[in-house]
Specification:
binds tryptophan, Immunoglobulin-like, Neutral Protease, domain 2, alpha+beta, 21% strand, 41% helix, 877 residues, 5-stranded mixed sheet, binds zinc ion, 8-stranded mixed sheet
Length: 877
Amino acid sequence: MRTQDPKTIYLREYQQPAFWVEHISLTVSLFDGYTEVSSELTLKKNSTVASRELVLNGIDQDIQSLQLDEKQLSSADYHYAEGVLTLNCDSDEAIFRAVTRIDPQNNTSLEGLYQSGSMYCTQCEAEGFRKITFYPDRPDVMATFTTRIEADASKFPVLLSNGNPIDSGTLEGGRHFAVWEDPFPKPSYLFALVAGDLSSKDDRFTTRSGRDVTLRIFVEPQNAHKVDFALDSLKKAMQWDEAVYGREYDLDLFMIVASDFFNMGAMENKGLNIFNSAAVLASPDTSNDQRFERIEGIVAHEYFHNWSGNRVTCRDWFQLSLKEGFTVFRDTEFSSDMHDRAVKRIETVAGLRAVQFPEDNGPMAHPVRPDSYIEINNFYTATVYEKGAEVVRMIHTLVGPDDFRRGSDLYFERFDGQAVTTDDFVACMEQVSGLDLTQFKRWYTQAGTPRLSVTDDYDADSQTYRLSFHQSCPATPGQTDKLPFVIPVKLGLLGADGNDLPIHTSANYNAGTEVLTLADETTEVVFTGVSERPVPSLLRDFSAPVKLSFGYSDEQLAFLAANDANGFNRWDALQQLYLRAILSMATEHRAGRSMTPPSVLVETVANVAGDASLSHAIRASMLTLPGYAILKDAVDVVYIDDLIAARKHLVKTLATRYRDIWRSLTEKLSSEAPYEFNAEESGRRQLQGLSLWYWLKAGDQAAFDFAAQLYASATNQTDRSNALRAVLAGDAEALQQSLLSDFYEHWQSDTQMVEQWLTMQAGTPGMTVTGIETLMQHPAFDIKNPNKVRSVIVGFAMNTESFHDARGEGYALLAKVVQQLNALNPQLAARLVTLLSDWKRYDADRGKMMASALETILATESLSSNVFEMAQRALKD
Ligand code: TRP
Ligand code: ZN
């Protein structure tokens, strides 16, 4: 809990500890009512540091005994305040022993050791190990672990920790024990322990050097039928990491455990990944295509951390993106290889623009490598993860795939078993490529999304074409002046026939990759031998995370959408057209004038819908309008009612104008084939779902009938949720209610389905604050369960029309929930605060109400440092 002034940690103050831990021997004894933890640390003086102060973190520890070597410590021998225990240690090698008691059964923070349903599990990243025992809980302290677990044998037949099982047996009183040994030195944040009555399923994987690895998933028995997909994903990920990075798994056992109570997606604990159930349990009947895709990606992500994160870890938490940015880049590449690269890129960029760009454009903006924090849990952000991955992607683009692989080989070899920095990573890439990445590293240190504005000029006489690039970056909290970034711009020049013209230029342009590299505030690029005035296709594949502007006409954008050789840019051109149309319609609406979408856009939509040369998935993404997050990020002042009116009007126009197209697509895309999750099939279902949604928006009775029929006959959750999504977006209230209650009736015993049910309800048009309060009283809701809270509360906040109700009741409800969660789960509470952080971008009335909800939060008694930091940053100028 917060003291008067929560302490800010600064990167520039990093210092190595005075003592390393070589080995820790841990015994965790679970009893009903308390848990006793005995630990023995083998300490070794760090000879590079003069101080002899042993600094150990420990929170909520009921001390039974502390001992340094043979000396029993009394409170006069140490100082213990605010979760830090310090004592002097005169010898260079020493053993520190602690016996403490903790209370996992009442640990609702879901950090450290806690109870999740009937099992016990741990979450130690970032600083949860200090809730288990006294320890230098910082990632640069890497030790080998031996863990003994003791518990009631009938209630907790399964006892797990990191590494290899080396011993087990029975104890008196119906208890038993297991001992695990992890031979790889690791930081405490990678520690894990699980105890429960779990069923498991095994699979095997043989590494290319012949190691026979057992893969084992543990779940609560009712979920035993939902593990196959994760096991398959895991094998694909293991195979891919060998093929693409030459990295093999390093233990004989790899375990995954599913937990219903979990603050985030999943955790890469060495040899014992712990997953949010929602991020691992899958079956065709309960998981839609999107969910399958997400699970495959997360399973891969956590597995990939074994090298990018575990074997080579972070020196301090400012380096978080070292492991997260790199690992997100790796899992994204994996998914691209498994499915459709262009589709994956579109999804990634849509997500980046909807979440990371707004973060970078508001009070929460921070660099990929932050300079300071109060609570590190608040920095597991889209910037550190997704922008961090874009930064790694740009390095990949600049050095090329071969040098990138050589650079990552060097990185793993040079730093295996060490805790390092993003500079160390970049240095490896510099060494193998010979490139100087000094300026490039501003991507790690400067926050904010760079703006890249481009103008052109064509001279027919000399057949030269000029592009002038100007970059800038808006001020962000604590950073007013920005220096130019290195920006790789992949581009092409389209001739009137829609084909790329040959490119000749003396600029810093790589013909093989089509990438032009900008490094200055302004750059003039001259192309020679250009036989006609081209239409430039800029930033292909979104080669840099910037906001690009070029004065395209609507016709030029439509031309690019129809012809660009780069699939990503076809999508992006159409997105720009939608965005423009909606914004200008919103302006009309604000002025009380009538709204008309430009006909070139309306025609392009018909062309795309009927373009059989495009895959179903690409068509679906091209026909999907930008969401409110992207619309809001594109205006100076958010007049949300006008944005809503404009977006709705565009949807309605497209729906009614093309009702026959939507109908025929919907009908044509039906299939009787048994469910299969692959790019083809999920593309088909995605386009059918979208067509049905449009068709229903046209208000045809036949569309409602089709949806009701699709729902009733669905043999998989994708079809079912497509039908539901369409019906819930329409205004047939009776049908909505009957499908929703049927859904609950049928699926109430399936946790993942209940979560989806809650999310759907929270997102229904016309949902009210009273409706949400009622939902929170439903037996399926549990304020202590983050998935349930996210389903209802984040689901409601994403329901733009309802959440931004003009009376501000949505904001007040959110403040109330944050206050309640502040005491139970500060990490989750702090995340919810971000839902209000863009208050300044709204019109004055809404902005005031949102700010006052933040003030309410800030005035909470016993405010956690987590929530304090977020609310205070949000309110700060
Ligand atoms: N390291 C995890 C990942 O990215 C995420 C993580 C960080 C996490 N802190 C957590 C997960 C707390 C659960 C709870 O894969
Ligand atoms: Zn991660």
